[in-house]
Write a structure and sequence with these properties.
6 helices; alpha/beta; Rossmann fold
C-alpha cells in the first residue's frame, strides 16, 4: 500500500494531492505541468513537501507533522527516468553492480542473474551505454534500479524518448516486473 498526502507550493504552481493505492502498477497521467513528475520527486525524496505524509507498506518516508524525513539514499525507491541516466564510462555489468551498491545488506531482493534474465540483457553485459539502443538503455536502467532492492519503483516517463518499436520492446518487461517481482510501481506518463 502506498499512501500520499502532500502540499507543495511553488511561485506558479501549487500541488495539493492525496491518494492511496495497493501494490501493482499505478499510472499517473495528465496534462503537462499538472504535477506528475513533482509527485514522483516527492516520493523519491528529491523534493520536500511543505506539509504532508508519504508511506510505503507502512514505512513512513516523510511526515512533516511528526518531523520525519527519510533521506533519498535511505528510502529504497528505485528511480527510472526517460533518459536512463546510465554511467557511460561503465559497462552494463558495472552499471548494474552500481545499483546493488545501494541495496541494504539485509534487504531481500532479486539477484543479479535473475534481473539479467528477466530483462533479457545478458548479451549486453560487456557493452557500454553509448553503444546501446534506447530500449536497451532503459532495460539496463530498470535493472540497476531493481538491484538496489527498492520498496517501490518510480518510473518517470521511461518511454517518452523512445520510438514506437522500442516502446513495444519495454512494455512487456514492465508487465513482467509487476507480475513476477510483485514490486509496487508508480508509472508517470
Amino acid at each position: 500500500m502506498i499512501s500520499f498526502s502532500c502540499r507543495l507550493a511553488r511561485p506558479r504552481f501549487v500541488l495539493d494531492a492525496e491518494f492511496a493505492f495497493p501494490g501493482g502498477c499505478t499510472a499517473l497521467f495528465g496534462a503537462s505541468g499538472s504535477g506528475k513528475t513533482t509527485i514522483a520527486r516527492l516520493i523519491a525524496g528529491i523534493e520536500r513537501p511543505d506539509r504532508g505524509r508519504i508511506a510505503v507498506d507502512g514505512h513512513v518516508l516523510v511526515d512533516t507533522a511528526a518531523g520525519i524525513w527519510e533521506p533519498v539514499h535511505k528510502r529504497r525507491v528505485g528511480l527510472v527516468f526517460q533518459d536512463g541516466q546510465l554511467l557511460p564510462h561503465l559497462s552494463v555489468r558495472r552499471n548494474l553492480a552500481y545499483g546493488r551498491y545501494f541495496a541494504p545488506h539485509d534487504a531481500k531482493g532479486v539477484d543479479f542473474d535473475e534481473i539479467v534474465a528477466l530483462l533479457g540483457i545478458g548479451h549486453l553485459l560487456d557493452a557500454h551505454p553509448p553503444t546501446l539502443s534506447g530500449g536497451e538503455r532503459q532495460r539496463v536502467a530498470i535493472g540497476r534500479a531493481l538491484l538496489a532492492a527498492p520498496r517501490l519503483l518510480v518510473m518517470d516517463e521511461p518511454l517518452a524518448s523512445l520510438d514506437a518499436e522500442r516502446k513495444h520492446e519495454i512494455l512487456p518487461f514492465i508487465e513482467r516486473l509487476r507480475d513476477e517481482l510483485r514490486l509496487p510501481i508508480v508509472y508517470v506518463s
